[in-house]
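Team,

Forwarding the record for the chain on the shared tracking sheet. I've put the sequence and predicted structure together so nobody has to dig through attachments.
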Amino acid sequence: MKKFYAFAAAALAAISMNAQTVVTLAGGFNGWSADANPMTETEAGSGIYEIKLPELLKEFKVVVTEVVDETPATSWYGVEGGVIELGKPTVLGTGDDAVYKNITFSTGWDAIANAELKFELSTKTLTVNGEEAKVEVAYGIHGSFATGDWATTNLENAGNDLWVKTFTFEAPAVGQFGIKQMDTKGNQLGWIAAPAAGIVIESEIEDIELATENTNNLDVNLPAGTWTFSFNAKELTLSVTEGTVGIDSVVAEENAPAVYYNLQGVKVANPENGVYVIRQGNKVSKVLVK
């Protein structure tokens, strides 16, 4: 019996020597690096990991890597529903990204100042403490159609929640992209793209509705020429027009007076209940007046 116990003890010692657990944070704030921000185990063998950060931006996951005999197995843990509350222990999960989403914060704030995070490995429970904070937000087009490689091109703030960028393509532009929400340092805060697969931009298109969850990349197949991308951050819509649209002209168009016409093309000074055609600057659309 003593020999059995000695053998079991030796086996456990071998396992502990050959097994290692590494817990890290990965998110837009560090380029989704699974190595940049390791958490520290409070005591050897406790299974409780902590980290303190001066600022933690929304959209991140806890990454657990189990290394056995030099073979790593990595799992990315998110939260069901995507939202956590400060100070509330929250059980994380892994496997289906559509269920266990990137971890974000309550509506209305983008970051945690003086963040303190604790992760309990046995229960996969995360607790986050700190102070709610806002950050200045910018937007960029992150895609492959401009250069062939995935990269971010900053959009210019045109005011009134409009962000624009003009591209000139000497050859047909083919690739994919989405809209990256960032802080002013370029750290990713969120991802905005198509709500369904199969949206292809091949010519001018107006007010494509975008989404922030369960998204798909937009496809681009535009002919050579000059094209302007206009993103409305409030409405989450994207328009693509041929030619140059400067910031001044975008603002002027948004501020242009709206002119209403009935469906017979007759100008209406005071539209009442019904469907009308509205022209504002160079923009024409149908609206329902109630």
